[in-house]
Amino acid sequence: MTNNSAILDRMFHALADPSRRAIVQRLCRGPAAVSDLAKPLSMALPTVLQHLQVLEHSRLIRSEKTGRVRTCHLEPAALATAEHWIGRQRMVWDQRLDRMEAYVKALRDKEAKREK
Amino acid sequence: MTNNSAILDRMFHALADPSRRAIVQRLCRGPAAVSDLAKPLSMALPTVLQHLQVLEHSRLIRSEKTGRVRTCHLEPAALATAEHWIGRQRMVWDQRLDRMEAYVKALRDKEAKREK
Question: What number is the ipTM of this complex?
Answer without folding.
Answer: 0.83
